[in-house]
Predict the structure.
Amino acid sequence: MPPRPLAQSPRKVFDGFGFCQRSVSAFVQPRSVEDVAAVLSRASEEGVRLGMRGSGRSYGDAALNGGGLILDMRHMGRVLSWDAQTGVIEAEPGLTIRELWTRTLADGWWPPVVSGTAWPTLGGCVAMNIHGKNHFRMGGISDHVLELDLITPGGEHVTLSPTRDPELFFAVLGGFGMLGVVTRIKLQLKRVYSGRLRVQQFHTPTLQSQLERFEQHTQDSDYLVSWVDCITSGGGLGRAQIHRATYLHEGEDPGGVAMLSPAKQDLPGHIMGVPKSIVPKLLKLFSFNLGMQAVNLVKYAASVVGSTKPYLQGHAAFHFLLDYVPEFRQSYAPGGFIQYQPFVPKEVALPVLTEILRRSQRAGIVSYLGVLKRYRPDRVLLPHALDGYSLAMDFPVTAANKADLWRLCGELSDVVTEAGGRFYPAKDSVLRPQDVQRAWGQDRLSRFAALRRRADPRGVLRTEWAERVGLDVFDR
Amino acid sequence: MSTAFPRALIVGASSGIGATLALKLAGTGAKVAAVARRQAELDALAAQSGGKVLPYAGDVLDYAATPALFDRIVDDLGGLDLFIYNAGVMPPVEESEYNFDKDRQMIEVNFLAAVQWSNLAAAHFEAARAGVLCGVSSVAGERGRRGSPVYTASKAGLTAYFEAMRNRLTRYGVRVVTIKPGPVETPMTAGLKLPLMITADQAANEIVSALEGGATEAFVPAIWRPIMFVVRNVPSFVFTKTNI
């Protein structure tokens, strides 16, 4: 009996992590390289458009393909090889960050770059070239990928590295799954001597003082991140609580090597004394502008009176803020939320970020959570990072504010692109074709389009994000 | 005339309750896609509705064709507000007859195909965070009966499936409606002597009222609700001695 046409595969409602975008797709779950090759070849023959998805942690529509087929990669998550001496791991794309470090930490190795949640798959991490709180030192995950295996819809099976077809390699990294399916990732991990980091927190009363502290600490910190109060205006505009962290040297952790046990990384069950299962419900009570102003005020005040003395904190607890509260996003129910994360060059960071905060306050649409991070330039063809800063802002979406929110983000994107800024597809829900064209420029987009014509001549790969920002336009 | 459901899809609409429902909904101003096997009957229905009912010939047992047919209908209608699964068969089963051919046909048409079509509509409605998903089950699904073991089982299954859909989808703003008609004069019941029989027109009127009135479960006619309450609670040792 011939196999069932792909379009008749089971269907599912998929959503973005911000759950304000969702659509119905058929889906298949490959379990081997052969399965992937067969699906790609059949999709091409049957005229089915196909988008990849891992854990669905992209906030918007980057892992959605309504009306088409989703290639759900979570069942290809095996570790293919692990060398505890060199810290080099080879894995399939469905392996999550959490599965990765639970395998390697006891041997003294931690992923060199992790996102704010441990659930993304390596395939997603590579496709989006994820960054962490250490981009200014370690770059994106692309800087640590040694090798990739890729199957293209055109039927090519290729191994890529910085020296083997580098043009395609650096386009697949951060190429949001538009050049083929990555089936093997070889990654260099980072040697660590403890499961803990030395963390220090301090506050900065203005945006300017915040940026100055960042610049001071880029040399002596391994991680830097700040929580920005996006609601307070006037003299307190952009005030923040900064966390900086450094790795511990060999023998420095008083807990000894026992602290490398993954079991020591369990996230605490309470946040400021509140059981985390009820935190989303509690936050929901404050999910309006004045309520969140109060939450931001209390948080800032706590950082002002809090100690600046360094303390030791587990890697997971430091990095995976989003995993602290299971289903924290329910505090944004029913409309969901978007995250808007512009990247701006350091030279213009102060005026541009000031303008962004002021414009959102003037529009009466303020971010409930703002996170500032520092970056260095990136080698990939379509980078989101640059020598500068990003400010990630969470905005609740409601039936009443949606049109205004999208209009505001459009205005902000004009400000960002005029200043030479960029955006991060994994977070995006609002970008327009002109934003993408200005952010990356015609030359980069034309090179990407040429690679797409080579890898995917029949245009099999598609996501709602790629369609929305008009990537297909550059293929013609 | 304003309609509560501008874009409706009825599966099992060439005769009986389905055809009458299609005409009534079309009469309220709705665009109604009607799916059934028999093209001639569908065409007659479309003509009778003055073009408001759109005919789609299709066999619910052609599982391979169903997803594409559903997608085409939703495309043609420009969306979907109301889905009704009304297809059903009840071949006569004699006393002491154990006929897998008939049993299979009832399970497939009354239950399995209902699940396939309703799943497609449910996913569409869940993503849209809106819509009304309606299944025409039967009072026969309330108890297993000696005269029609598999018909009652197919309808019991359908009722349970729609309850599960209600529990799944209510939180997303989708209303799931289970219709439980008693005997209705239709080609399916022709020649049978059944109690409290109503016409297809009466049944369709009550179903439209339930759909427009926000109900999630409707006995048709309403008198069946207290009757079935009693029937459901008859102890098994008594039920085994009855001819129900």
User: Anything to note?
Assistant: Residues 100-128 of chain B form the longest helix (29 residues). The domain at 7-239 of chain B is CATH 3.40.50.720 (Rossmann fold). The interface with chain A takes residues 64, 67-68, 71, 119-120, 123-124, 126-127 of chain B (CB under 8 Å). Strands of chain B lie at 7-11, 31-36, 53-57, 82-85, 132-136, 175-181, 184-185, 198-199, 217-220.
